[in-house]
Every structure is written in C-alpha cells, then in structure tokens.
Amino acid sequence: MGAVLGVCSLASWVPCLCSGASCLLCSCCPNTKNSTVTRLIYAFILLLGTAVSCIMLTKHMETQLKKIPGFCEGGFKIRMPDIKADEDCDVLVGYKAVYRINFALAVFFFVFFLLMLKVKTSKDPRAAVHNGFWFFKIAALVGIMVGAFYIPGGPFTTAWFTVGMGGAAFFILIQLVLLVDFAHSLNELWVNRMEEGNPRLWYAVLLSVTSFFYILSIIGVGLLYAYYTKPDGCTENKFFISINLILCIVVSVISIHPKIQEHQPRSGLLQSSIITLYTMYLTWSAMSNEPDRSCNPSLLSIITHITAPTLAPGNSTAPAPTSAPPSKSGGFLDTENFIGLLVFVICLLYSSIRNSSNSQVDKLTLSGSDSVILGDTTANGGSDEEDGQPRRAVDNEKEGVQYSYSFFHLMLCLASLYIMMTLTSWYSPDAKFQNMTSKWPAVWVKISSSWVCLLLYVWTLVAPLVLTNRDFS
C-alpha cells in the first residue's frame, strides 16, 4: 500500500517535469517572478556542476576515475621513473575530469544560446523550453557529461584548453559589466535615499563605502609591490602593477570630470572605486600564473608571512615567502582558485536576481533592448491565483522578456569555461601532454582582460559625449 501511495505521489510531480519554474516552488515559498526563478535554477545547475568539478579534484575520486575505460590512456600522463603506467594517471586525472564536466556544461548552455535567439515573449514556444522541461534538460546534461568522459584525450584537450582560455577571458569582461551595473544600482539607491531625506547620512555612507574600496585597492597595490616584485627582477610584474595603477587613477579622474558629470550626473567615484579594486584583483590573478615561481608566491605563504613573520637575528631580514611548485596530484582548491570562484559566484547570483530595468546592463545587451520591459507584474494581466491555488511564480514576460534568454545562456557557457580554467589554475598541457604548467599566455590573457575592462568602463562614461544622438538617460 505504501509503495502504491509513493508511486501516486511521484506521479503527481510528473506534470512539473514538463511545466515552468513555478511548479518547482513549494507552497511556503513567497510569490516571485518566473523570470527570476528560471535564472536561479540555471544558476543552481551551474553551481552544482562547479561542486561536482571540485569533487573531481579530491584524492578519493582518483581511484574511481581510473576505472573509466580509456580515461588514463593518452594525454595528461606524466612519465616518472620507477612508477607504473596506471599510476601516472593520478597526476592530472582530476584536471582531466574537470575539463570534461565543464565541456558538457558549456555545450549544454551553448545549445540553448542558439535555441533562444530572438525570443521576445513567453508566448514564444521556445520560451516554454527555456522555463520548463527541467527533468529532460537535466537528464540531457547528465548524458552529455557521461559521454564526455569517453572522449579521447590528445587533440581534444589542446583544442578545449584554447577555447577555455578565450571563453574565460570574455567572462572576465562580463564580470566587469555586472560590477558596473551593481555600482550604478548602488549609487542610484543612495541618491534616491538622499533625495527622500537626511542627505548628510547617505553622503556619509556613500563616502565611507567609496573610501573603503579605494583603501583596499591601495593596500592591494602595496602588497603586490612588496611580495610580487624584487629590486633586481620581476620586471614584468613591476610593469603590470604600475601601468594598472596609473590607468585606475586616470579612470577615476575621468569619472568626475565636469563634462562627464554634465552628461552622466550619477557617475562618480563609487563606480570607479569598485572597478579599481576589480582591476587590482585581475592584476594579482594574472601574476599568480607567472611561470617564475620566485616572482609568484602563493597567497597562503604571504598571509603566513604577514601574520607570523619568521624571527630573524639582529640585522638580518625575515625571508620572503616563496611559492612551492604546483602540486602534481591535481589537488583540491588553493587560495587563489577559491577567490576566483567566490567572485564568480557573486556575479552569477547577482545576474540571476538583478532587475532588468537597470540601465547599464540593458545598454550592454544583458536584457533585450527590443522588448517591453515591465516593472509591474500586474501590468501583464497576471493573476495571483491559478486554478484556485496561490500562484508561486508569476509569468511577467507575456508582453516582453525581462532579459535576453540567449545572452544569459551565453554568459553561463562562458562561465563554465571560466570555472574550468580557474579550477585547473589556468595550467597549460604541453604538446606531448607530459605535464601541466603555468605559462605566459595565461598571464597575458588576464592582464589584457584588465585593460579591456578599464577601456570598456571608460566607454560607458564617454559614450554620451560621442554618441550625442542616442538616449543614455
């Protein structure tokens, strides 16, 4: 009898496998918008894939992964003396698994990017696929993941590494777009609060937050000069830190220039302070991939050196932190990778819950520019009840989508590549797949991304002066 009731209970969920996101919400959940719920579910799928990728880097998974037929044959084998062939796979088996998991995620989201092009309203049949059929979509994703583990190594790995590096660089730019949007939204909120009452309080809050970000940036620059440069070496690092510091000062000055303020009175130092801090993060992230380990100490060793410096006698100096060579076990997350993933999670969640009416992201194509953006769900004629039951998620896209479906999936596709590169520390397999090393291309990709980020932000400031016939209000 219990089994029959269990089957009946399971059968009641079958309609939810094909319906929209609202069916997945329990009765205790607050009413929300369908567009927000759908984005959160896709974000959860990507985060779940990230968690699985992290698990693949643990020691416990090595034995299980080696049981996959052909998984330890070809690529990613480091030949070491006095070690059996089947043990060679232990060295980078975790990285190999991460490549395949994120290959499946990237393919999954790229297919949806193509499928969702030009979707304008939820009345489009393709919108039903985007907002529903969760069981079948997850099953398809799992199937792609399983199949990816049987893809031979060799050329696939080199080609996928190249694709991953380019995609990750583009996602870094998307992170900047989201940070700019967040800064503008925060500034807008505070300006509105100032106009409503007690402007002194909100001016103090705005000044405090802006100063906090700039102080963090200055501290970061000092630490980079102290630990990532040497008087007689590390020339590239000195150049990277100095040029980005100068560019950040220039960007900050531009943001408060009278001409810029005339056309964009809401722009200011708050946005510039966030961009400055992000640029310093990218600078450090780039230098953390430098092949010269003497110019690339690990963050953990720096923290240890600061909090518990080595006691040295008399006139001697405490030794500077050094970075050990990268682990050959494909070990779990290091501190640098953890910070990269933390930035990714923050940007992903913000992109999932942000209001599509925010102008900065709308101008940068994160939301559909041709669609009717609705600020009130009741304007759609949506009801708070459906079939006599409270509606948990309201379809607020009957007259126009709240964000670009295709661009959202493209962002998740690029995010998958960013996760892959971050978890594998941007290490590059050599031509014979005998080792994985940190190489200069990864450094230049990251540092170039920081320059493009600054250029993109400057463009958002000067665009109203250049394109005078376009409405940027």
From TrEMBL:
Bilayer topology: Multi-pass membrane protein
GO cellular component: membrane
InterPro entries registered for this protein in UniProt: TDE1/TMS
Family: Belongs to the TDE1 family.
Ranges that cross the membrane: 40-58, 97-117, 129-151, 157-180, 201-227, 239-256, 268-287, 337-353, 407-427, 447-467
Cellular compartment(s): Membrane
Source organism of the structure: Microcebus murinus (Gray mouse lemur)
Entry keywords, A to Z: Membrane, Transmembrane, Transmembrane helix
Xref: Pfam families: Serinc (PF03348)
Name this polypeptide is given: Serine incorporator 3
